[in-house]
Amino acid sequence: MSFFAILFALLIEQARPLARTNPIHAGLRAWALSVCRNFDAGKPHHGWVAWSLAVLVPALVTLAVHWLLLLGLGWPFAVVWSVAVLYVTLGFRQFSHHFTGIRDALEEGDEDRARERLADWQQVDVGALPRSEIVRHVIEYSVLSAHRHVFGVLAWFSVLAALGLGPTGAVLYRLAEFVSRYWQYKERTGVQPASAALQQASAQAWTLVDWLPVRMTALSFAVVGSFEEAIEGWRFHAQRFPSDNDGVVLAATAGAINVQLGGEALPARADPKTPQGLEIEADMGDSDSTPGREPEVVHLRSVVGLVWRSVVVWMLLLALLTLARLLG
């Protein structure tokens, strides 16, 4: 029933997206902060204990609820639970309003408003960023957000649901990404900072958790975009980016739509605001540029098409697997 759970979650999220300020995200921040405060003693093994508590405990609670509903009330209630979990963890509307606002401002020729929206989205100092660089950064942040909010969640949810673990994978993936970014944010702001050991443990865990999903995302971009160029970018240009996993997605995107990505990173604001949700992304770091055309506003529409076509491919694949399972 994974296909139907994902379909209903996406439809509900499009009709009524989760509010930017909501008790669920606030509770996650409080949980991550509490674990850091009580279990982060600065030693490497303390870092792994804190990460395990912050990520695995909620995932196991999600699994327990799934099995209780499945065994006690039946599979329809278990599907409803999966839809509810996916509604919180999966969705375009958790970041797409930023993308749409910047794209509309650029199409209207209002570059100042586009810079302001980009700065508010990522909490960065944009200065007098030229138009092509605004587009480049929007593309990079958007495809990474699409991967983390949609395709990565789909990958882990689908794999673990096929093993009978319900929506556990969606919670595991989103929390692994969130705590890694949130503890780095706390360190950067100096407000109840996380130790170096905890940050290292969460970063290593996130790299492992995201290893398979990024390659599945890159492959889907290649299938629906320019296949040969996307695969070539993945193979030969992913190492240009500081993060190996992010580099795979960005290099495949650059090849799929023939756009130049990579370059100088934007510096973080000196006085970052407290994040209201899960949409604030980590610093990307400087990198070398990939081959391709200079970023233009038309590439933003190409990114939208690339992402939505990839979603259709994922849903078709899940539908075929569901049909084969029902017929088998």
UniProtKB/TrEMBL annotation:
GO molecular function terms noted in the UniProt entry: ABC-type vitamin B12 transporter activity; threonine-phosphate decarboxylase activity
Annotated region described as Disordered, given as residue ranges: 271-293
InterPro entries: Cobalamin_biosynth_CobD/CbiB
UniProt pathway: Cofactor biosynthesis; adenosylcobalamin biosynthesis
GO cellular component: plasma membrane
Keywords on record: Cell membrane, Cobalamin biosynthesis, Membrane, Transmembrane, Transmembrane helix
Keyword Membrane: yes
Transmembrane portions of the chain: 48-70, 77-95, 153-176, 306-327
Predominant location: membrane
Membrane topology, as annotated: Multi-pass membrane protein
Keyword Manganese: no
GO biological process: cobalamin biosynthetic process
One of the Pfam families matching this protein, by short name: CobD_Cbib
Localization of this protein: Cell membrane
Function (record text): Converts cobyric acid to cobinamide by the addition of aminopropanol on the F carboxylic group.
PANTHER family (UniProt xref): COBALAMIN BIOSYNTHESIS PROTEIN CBIB
Family: Belongs to the CobD/CbiB family.
The protein's name in its UniProt record: Cobalamin biosynthesis protein CobD
Organism listed in the record: Acidovorax soli
